[in-house]
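Anyone up for a design puzzle?
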């Protein structure tokens, strides 16, 4: 190995190991890596790259594992399984809760360290993007929430919005309605056109599933689909009370906006085709999000489990 390649290799190898790890733990991780890579590189080169001694490595491989190292290896398997269950989205808080729910009680800092040692990270939520067309002459409703996004029981307040998705065949639009109590998606619809019929499909699904009592507050932005005569008539026929955000204030509908930001972070906003988008979105909402995904707002329960606990 010439010197230039050696230097690049050393810099790359050293970058794998954070300085915050305690010395003994850092040496263990480095020696483990040397052991795994010795079939590809000479031990002397690997040790030189990581600033550890060959004698230390050979002493390490002959030394019996400590109880802590064995436990870290066991916990590493559990942490990786929790991260995989969360589809690569979970950071340390959700993984910590996932482990606790399955009977493994360890400190959050230990979870952070094990995730770092295994190169695991949660996905960072994207900033939400507005898609509202509020430039219309249709009547709009007052804002009844005033950015108070709390509900004491299911089917008291729903919030809704629409976002766009990309495919090679053109745009798709996704409309959702979310129950503020459990953050469950109670209704959703997908279409190539962002119009009142898309919004009505999501509303019909939500009403069919939840059968809300008259008086439920239905909050959205001022978009033309929600302000249309057909949509307003559908709300009135079902006894639902319309509420709308103030013009240009995205924080008035922050829960729906935040849901789309998380959705696009976790599932993406580009799909292979319309059929591919339909399949993946159905699975994400109905199987993963509503049933399994731990929500920080819900004491790290899924929407389904949060509603079950409340009902019990």
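Challenge accepted. My sequence:
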């Amino acid at each position: 190995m010439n010197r230039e390649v050696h230097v690049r290799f050393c810099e790359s190898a050293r970058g794998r190991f954070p300085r915050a790890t305690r010395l003994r733990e850092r040496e263990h991780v480095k020696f483990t890596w040397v052991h795994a890579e010795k079939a590809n590189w000479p031990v002397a080169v690997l040790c030189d790259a990581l600033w550890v001694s060959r004698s230390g490595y050979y002493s390490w491989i002959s030394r019996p594992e400590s109880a802590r190292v064995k436990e870290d290896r066991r916990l590493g398997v559990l942490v990786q399984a929790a991260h995989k269950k969360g589809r690569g989205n979970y950071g340390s808080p959700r993984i910590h809760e996932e482990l606790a729910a399955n009977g493994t009680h360890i400190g959050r800092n230990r979870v952070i360290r094990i995730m770092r040692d295994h190169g695991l990270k949660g996905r960072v939520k994207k900033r939400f993007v507005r898609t509202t067309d509020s430039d219309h002459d249709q009547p709009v409703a007052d804002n009844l929430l005033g950015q108070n996004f709390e509900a004491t029981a299911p089917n008291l307040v729903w919030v809704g919005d629409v976002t766009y998705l990309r495919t090679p065949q053109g745009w798709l639009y996704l409309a959702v309605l979310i129950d503020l109590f459990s953050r469950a998606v109670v209704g959703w619809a997908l279409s190539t056109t962002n119009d009142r019929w898309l919004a009505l499909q999501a509303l019909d699904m939500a009403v069919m599933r939840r059968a809300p009592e008259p008086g439920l507050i239905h909050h959205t932005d001022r978009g033309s689909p929600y302000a249309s005569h057909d949509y307003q008539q559908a709300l009135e026929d079902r006894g639902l009370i319309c509420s709308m955000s103030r013009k240009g204030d995205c924080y008035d509908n922050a829960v729906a906006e935040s849901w789309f930001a998380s959705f696009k972070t976790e599932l993406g906003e580009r799909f292979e085709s319309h059929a591919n988008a339909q399949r993946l979105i159905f699975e994400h909402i109905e199987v993963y999000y509503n049933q399994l995904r731990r929500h920080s707002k819900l004491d790290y329960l899924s929407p389904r489990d949060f509603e079950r606990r409340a009902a019990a």
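A detail worth pointing out: The longest strand covers residues 157-167.
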